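Batch manifest line 320
LIGAND: fe (ii) ion
JOB: complex structure
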Amino acid sequence: MLEADSVKITLLVDNQIDMLLPDDQNVDRYGLVEHFDTRVPPPIAENGLSILIEATAGRQVTRVIFDAGLTSNGLMHNLATLGIDAQTLDYLVLSHGHPDHYGGIYGLLERRDTRLSVVTGADAFLPRFASMPDGRVSGNYSAALRPDTVESSGGSLIMCEDAISLGGGIYSSGRIPLATEFEGPAATAPWGSNGLWQLNTEHRLVVDPVAEEQAVFVAVNGGLIVLTGCAHRGVVNTIRRGRELFGDRDVLAVFGGFHLGFPTTPAANVDATYREFVQVGVQRVIPMHCSGLRSHIAFSAATGGPSYIQPAVGSVFSFS
Ligand SMILES: [Fe+2]
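JOB STATUS: finished
ARTIFACT:
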């Protein structure tokens, strides 16, 4: 199994930005000095997710961008501000087919001189709708994500439902089984409830199972780093998938959207998730994007479990 010697993780797009966060052991912040430097526009936050993973194994450096934020403007602005060259990327992994995760894909592909391999599940391209309790219904909000458009914009699609190695100890998760009792999308719901819907492969309108959602794992020096997109399949289920693939390694950190801020996610899931983190021995937790205020409050106040680290666009985490 390929294993990284060291890993650098940069938060490219997230809902939060905070220039007052101090540097910490293994965390370099894009702080006040950088924000006040008039020569470089500061990074911006938006309601999406994108994370750069740079793994070094021997002399080889592998660079994977996990999700593409909500807009091309946001992603490309932050790449430029943070000094990251889009030409150096080896893969884009799209966790699932929701716009807050693929939105910047075309800006990124069009910026490159060469094709970029895009790893995702086939169901990412199914039509999707949102219905709200007040009667509002969206059109197909994922219409912009199409395989032919990805290809014609410079992407080379790798559709996969199994885990694959991306090099340097970085892996896509493959499909994530629903193992816990409390996580994952509801099997059914009344139309008009606060929910997400999908026109499935049998042309039936169903509660969106987001069955294609994949995470990214990094195997580094005997430990495991877990990165989730939106965790529609559950962040604990994602960790369990990691353990299934990599065995009982120390979970050094869990990054990403935990789906605990979604209006239909029960509040009790926050504590249930933390208990599982404690049980697994997760060392650090960085709740981003859709994790919600409740999980930031709970995880930052709790003791006996993982260290809570506040996310902010531009923060760089190092593991070796
Ligand atoms: Fe999301």
